[in-house]
Design goal:
Structural class: alpha/beta
Bound molecules: N-(aminocarbonyl)-beta-alanine, zinc ion
Low-confidence stretches: none
Order of helices and strands: EEEEEEHEHEHEHEHHHEHEHHEHHEEEE
Distance between the termini: 39 Å
């Protein structure tokens, strides 16, 4: 099957140019650049006379690599509730928004192996994903056996391990455990992802708030101060530095945390970080509207609006390398209301896998980042960071044909009425955005065209990933 995409502008992280793109079966076979002198409706010389099965006219539109969301939680069981998007519904929604790869999280139960957690996750995901998918593992128990398992898993293509200074009941690792994990990945080529909030200190603040009768959703925001995020980001970067391991901070939410990443990077630490659309667009005041605020309960929490400017600057300056969603949707009615009387019982997490690419594009419209940087943070950098470089994250020969034909002018309104995520509200209800995908291709197959679903559950393949160490500099 040959598809030729003509007349568009290829936008890659390293530059943009007019080019025709030839897709053969699952891969990009060739990119034929077009000189300035070539008429708009003329094919690049490379493809003149070529017989193809389909030609897509991308005039006026951009040809960009499919998005890679490095942080999702499909079907995550948080004990009291299970995240509403299944691997099927969540990957379909991702594709509608221009994302063609997700990296999701398997979880180790305390006392069990990493492998058992991965197997349980695989049994949920396999055969259900509409786009390609890979796994990180959330580690709850660092011991001799799990450290040895890490070596084996890295060799098999599961190269990334999330550790926590948060969630004492389920996931928190002490300093020694963190050091051991960093040391192991320094040796085996893996990468530690850190949820860096001080869970033990947060418990003290939380208890005091609850005892004083402050139990509305807003107090979730106050219970997890940015100071305690900054403190942990500083600490874990220094641990990683001591053993010369790279570290990737997930869902960085605050200026306090960003400042520590910048300080670490300036010292030469191999420190990298991801932020999320919710920290760039939403703020603490949304929690302060009575029960409605429960829609915005996530950890780390939304911060005061004045943190956003610095996060955007962090993205522009490459102090923050990626944008992931931390997509973890719970219905407002029937799930969030488990915490109706007490914010401590509200399932933590927000929906967003469908909106990420378009939301970050608003940064291009606003002049905060270039279109090339947009492609970099939503696709190319996650590919490099997570062992998919050379395969995904660029419009280039030999890469998987994960391609988005993006209309930078097309406007639409974000709403639960029209989104494809399996959740009963949108965090961005009523917000008009400019820019949207017209066509989404996953490994050469058109899965979305003009708002119509043409994909299939089970088309997505599990991604065994390489060590990304050579890119983590
Ligand atoms: O509130 C959040 N972020 N829920 C998902 C779990 C996590 O810590 O990433
Ligand atoms: Zn987390
Ligand atoms: Zn998460």
């Amino acid at each position: 099957m040959r598809t030729l995409i003509t007349n568009g502008t290829v936008v890659n992280a390293d530059g943009s140019y007019r080019a025709d793109v030839l897709v053969e079966d699952e891969r990009i076979a060739a990119v034929g650049r077009i000189g300035h002198e070539t008429a708009a409706d003329q094919l690049s010389d490379l493809f003149a006379g070529l017989v193809v099965d389909r030609t897509i006219d991308a005039a006026g539109r951009w040809i960009v690599p499919g998005g890679i969301d490095p942080h999702t939680h499909m079907e995550l069981d948080v004990g009291s509730a299970v995240a509403k998007d299944t691997f099927e519904s969540g990957t379909r929604a991702a594709a509608f928004g221009g994302t063609t790869t997700i990296l999701d999280f398997a979880g180790q139960e305390r006392g069990a192996s990493l492998r058992a957690g991965l197997d349980a996750w695989l049994s949920q995901a396999e055969g259900h994903c509409a786009i390609d998918y890979g796994a990180h593992i959330m580690v709850s128990d660092v011991n001799a056996a799990s450290l040895a398992e890490m070596d084996q898993l890295v060799a098999e293509g599961v190269t990334t391990f999330k550790l926590f200074t948060a969630y004492p009941d389920r996931y928190l690792s002490d300093d020694g455990a963190l050091m051991r994990a960093f040391r192991r990945t320094a040796d085996n080529g893996g990468l530690v992802l850190m949820h860096a909030e001080n869970g033990l200190a947060i418990d003290v603040v939380t208890e005091a708030l609850a005892e004083a009768g402050n139990r509305e959703p807003y107090y979730h925001g106050l219970s997890r101060p940015a100071l305690l995020e900054g403190e942990c980001v500083n600490r874990v970067i220094r641990f990683a530095e001591v053993v010369e391991a790279p570290v990737y901070i997930v869902h960085l939410s605050s200026r306090d945390a960003l400042e520590e990443v910048v300080r670490g990077r300036d010292r030469g630490a191999l420190a990298f970080a991801e932020t999320c659309p919710q920290y760039l667009f939403l703020d603490l005041s949304l929690l302060d509207q009575g029960w409605e605020g429960a829609k915005y309960v996530c950890s780390p929490p939304l911060r005061p609006a004045d943190h956003q400017e610095e996060l955007w600057l962090g993205l522009a300056r490459d102090d923050l390398q990626t944008v992931g969603t931390d997509h973890c949707p719970f219905d407002f009615v029937g799930q969030k209301d488990l915490g109706r009387d007490d914010f401590r019982k509200i399932p933590n997490g927000l929906p967003g896998v469908e909106e990420r690419v378009d939301l970050i594009f608003q940064g291009v419209i606003a002049g905060r980042i270039t279109r090339e940087r947009w492609v970099e943070v939503v696709s190319t950098a996650p590919a490099r960071m997570f062992g998919l470089a050379g395969r995904k994250g660029a419009i280039a020969p030999g890469h998987d044909a994960d391609i988005v034909v993006y209309d930078p002018e097309r406007k639409h309104v974000l709403s639960a009425e029209t989104h494809h995520m399996n959740v009963d509200y949108s965090c961005y209800e009523g917000m008009e955005v400019q820019g949207h995908c017209d066509i989404v291709m996953s490994r050469g197959r058109v899965v979305v065209e003009d708002g119509e679903w043409l994909g299939q559950a089970g088309h997505g393949r599990f991604l065994a990933r390489e060590s990304s160490r050579e890119y983590l500099k």
